[in-house]
Amino acid sequence: MRHLSRALFALGLALGFAPLAPLALAAQDARLDSRLDAHTRGAVVALIDSARADGIPSEPLVQKALEGASKRADGARILIAVRMLDRELGDARAALGAASSDAEIIAGASALHAGIAPAALVRMRASRAHGSLTVALAVLSDLIARGVPGDTATTVISALTVAGAQDAELVKFQQGVERDIAQGATPSAALGVRAQGAFPAAAPRRTP
Amino acid sequence: MRQHDESDAAAEVDDVLKSAAEELRRPLRIDAALFDARVMDEVHRGAGGFRERMARLTRPRTFRVSPLTALAATLVFAVAIGAGVLALRPSRARVPLSDVARAGAGSPLVQFGFVAPNASSVALVGDFNDWDPKATPLRAASTGGVWSVEVPIQPGRHLYAFVVDGTVWRPDPAAPQATGEDYGEPNSALTVVAEQGSR
Questions:
Q1: Could you tell me which residues come within 8 angstroms of residue B94 by beta carbon, excluding any fewer than 6 positions away?
Q2: pLDDT tens digits for range A84-114
Q3: Chain B residues whose beta carbon lies within 8 Å of the beta carbon of residue A164
Q4: Least CA distance to A68: which residue of chain B?
Q5: What CATH number labels B97-192?
Q6: pTM here?
Q7: Residue A11 lies inside a defined structural domain of this protein
Q8: Are B95 and B149 in contact (CB under 8 A)?
Q9: In this model, does residue A22 exceed pLDDT 50?
Q10: What is the average per-residue pLDDT within A22-32?
Q11: Fewer beta carbons below 10 Å: N end or C end of chain A?
Q12: Range of the domain at A206
C-alpha cells in the first residue's frame, strides 16, 4: 500500500512537471531560432539532443553557438566549434565520472581545451573523490592560459587539491601567480615560488 | 346702515394691508455679532456630532468570534502581510534580472569594469547572457572613461568579453585570457567561487 502511495505520488509529481519540459526545450530552441540560419540550427540542435541523451551538459553547446552568431562567424565555423566542445565535454565527463556536476564537466572541458590530458583529469578526480573540482580545474586552465606549462601546473594544482586547499585558496594562489607574471617573473618561476610559499610539498622539484 | 358697516370693514382691511406692506418694506436688520454667534453655534453642534461618532467607534465592545473564523482571519492577515513584505522586498541585484539570462537568485554579484574614454557604448557579453550585446550595457562614470556594471553570475567557469561601440570585441585586460579562439576574437575567463560544500 505504501509502495502504491509512493508510486502515485511520483506519478503525480511527474505529471505535474511534465508540461514544463517542452517549455524549457522551446525556450532553448527559441534562442537558437533567432540567431542561427536554418541549416546550422538543425545541425546544432541535433548535437544538443545527442549530448543530452548522453548525459553531457547541453547549455555550453548552446552558448558556443550563440557566441559564434554574435561574432558573426559563418555556419560551418560554428558547427566546428560546437562539435569540438561537444567532444571535450564528453571526454571530460568520461574522465571525471558520470556523477560529476555540470560545472565540473564544463571546467574539465576547458582544461582539455587548454591542453591537459584526460589522464590528468582522472588523477585529479582520484585525488578529490567527494569534493568539487570545478575551481581547481578552472584555475588549472587559467594558469596554462597565462603561460605556465601544463604538466607543471597539473602537478602543483593536484598537490594543492590533495592537501585540501579550499576553492578560495586556489583562486588566491592563481591571483598571486598572475601578479608575479605581470611583474616580470616567468610563468614557471612564478608558479614554483607561489607553490613553495602556499604549500612547500606541492612545489615542483628543482632539477640540479 | 348696512352700507356704512361695509365701508368700515373695507377701511379696516385697507389698514391691515397697509401695515403689513409697511412691515414688509421695512429693511431687515441683521445683527452681525448675533449672526456669527449663531453660525459658530451650528459649527460646534456639528463638531460635537463628529466627536460623538468617534467616541462611538473607539468605545470598547465585545465581539463573539468562532475559532474557525478567528483562524481564517489570522490566515488572511498573515497572507496579506507576507504578500506585502514580498512586494516591498528590495532586489539584491543592482542590475535588472531581465538583463542577465538565467542568473540564479543566490548568484554572487560580480563587478566588471572597462576603460574606454572615447567609447560611446560598452556592453558585457558572455556565456551568462547568451552573448547578447544588448543584454548587459555598462554604465559610464562621469569622468575618466571608466565603464562598469555589476551582474549576478552563477558559480563556475565562464567566458566573456566586452563589445565597444557595438562592433569591436575586446577581452578584459584585468582577467586571464581563455585558451583557444574558436571565432577569432579572444575571450576572458572568469571563475566564480561557490560557497564551500556546494558542487
A1: B109, B150
A2: 999 999 999 999 999 999 999 999 999 999 9
A3: none
A4: B183
A5: 2.60.40.10
A6: 0.65
A7: no
A8: yes
A9: no
A10: 61
A11: C
A12: 99-208
